[in-house]
């Protein structure tokens, strides 16, 4: 996640020469604090004050719904024995991705959206309570849980068919103190991933940097494929991670 992007999201500065220099200074501090829970609590409190219901890193559900549905259907064919398809969104914040999957998928799904910020989780719980979204399949479930994504202790191994990470690993990797947390999150995600499931990381980091990190941090346990995704003229990457 670039300094300029952090600046836009947190500071709201424009692109003048004076504010750009100030933004770079502030954003450097922000990048080194982005693994801290307190930063995100404050961030979402401000979004709450601004009456913002959903906020998405990179892009929203509609921009990647086609790709997600394709991955889901491929996983369903690989594991036809499951009576329900389990999805985990790591570091969900107040994104609309989990809600969109819950509403759109015709198959029975259990969508779990996890975030370390109780402010974000409370905002999404209130939103769902207010709007009462209807799933396409009456057996589908949606829940929001406060959870440290580096410690998924409440989930047993091999539980989830699909795990999503939209910018959470980026946040850890951009912070010096967060790099061990990125590895721990990866290991926990691989632990709770079903043997035939997929772990999708959405990032703006170049494959030349991300793929070697994934392969080395996964200790030879992972197979990684990458797909480029262009949204509103900007390039992003989808890293599809499977257990060997």
UniProtKB/TrEMBL annotation:
An annotated GO cellular component of this protein is: mitochondrion
What is the protein's given name?
A: Citrate synthase-lysine N-methyltransferase CSKMT, mitochondrial
Summarizing the function annotation, the protein's role is: Protein-lysine methyltransferase that selectively trimethylates citrate synthase (CS) in mitochondria. Seems to conduct trimethylation in a highly distributive manner rather than in a processive manner, and thus introduces a single methyl group per binding event.
In the UniProt record, the gene name given for this protein reads: cskmt
Domain Methyltransferase spans what residues? Answer: 86-200
Reactions catalysed according to its record: N(6),N(6)-dimethyl-L-lysyl-[citrate synthase] + S-adenosyl-L-methionine = N(6),N(6),N(6)-trimethyl-L-lysyl-[citrate synthase] + S-adenosyl-L-homocysteine + H(+); L-lysyl-[citrate synthase] + S-adenosyl-L-methionine = N(6)-methyl-L-lysyl-[citrate synthase] + S-adenosyl-L-homocysteine + H(+); N(6)-methyl-L-lysyl-[citrate synthase] + S-adenosyl-L-methionine = N(6),N(6)-dimethyl-L-lysyl-[citrate synthase] + S-adenosyl-L-homocysteine + H(+)
What does the record list as GO biological process? Answer: methylation
Task: Extract the CDD domains matched here.
Answer: AdoMet_MTases
What InterPro entries would the database entry show?
Lys/N-term_MeTrsfase_sf (IPR051419), Methyltranfer_dom (IPR025714), SAM-dependent_MTases_sf (IPR029063)
- Name the family the entry cites: Belongs to the methyltransferase superfamily.
Instruction: Please list the GO terms describing molecular function.
Output: methyltransferase activity
* Subcellular compartments: Mitochondrion
Q: Which keywords has UniProt assigned to this entry?
A: Methyltransferase, Mitochondrion, S-adenosyl-L-methionine, Transferase, Transit peptide
């Amino acid at each position: 996640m670039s300094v300029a992007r952090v600046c836009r999201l947190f500071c709201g500065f424009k692109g003048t020469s004076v504010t750009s220099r100030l933004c770079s200074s502030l954003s450097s501090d922000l990048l080194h604090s982005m693994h801290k829970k307190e930063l995100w609590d404050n961030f979402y409190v401000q979004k709450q004050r601004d009456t913002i219901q959903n906020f998405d890193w990179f892009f929203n559900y509609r921009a990647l719904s086609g790709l997600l549905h394709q991955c889901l259907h491929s996983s369903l064919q690989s594991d036809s024995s499951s009576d329900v398809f389990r999805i985990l969104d790591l570091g969900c914040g107040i994104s609309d991705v989990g809600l969109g999957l819950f509403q759109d998928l015709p198959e029975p799904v259990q969508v779990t959206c996890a975030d370390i910020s109780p402010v974000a989780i409370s905002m999404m719980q209130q939103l769902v309570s207010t709007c009462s979204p209807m799933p396409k399949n009456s057996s589908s479930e949606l829940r929001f849980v406060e959870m440290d994504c580096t410690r998924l202790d409440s989930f047993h191994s091999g539980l989830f068919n699909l795990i999503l990470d939209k910018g959470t690993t980026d946040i850890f990797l951009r912070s010096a103190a967060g790099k061990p947390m990125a590895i721990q999150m990866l290991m926990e995600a691989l632990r709770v991933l079903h043997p035939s499931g997929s772990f999708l990381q959405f990032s703006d980091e170049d494959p030349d940097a991300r793929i070697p990190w994934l392969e080395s941090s996964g200790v030879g346990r992972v197979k990684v494929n990458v797909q480029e995704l262009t949204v509103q003229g900007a390039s992003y990457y989808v890293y599809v991670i499977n257990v060997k």
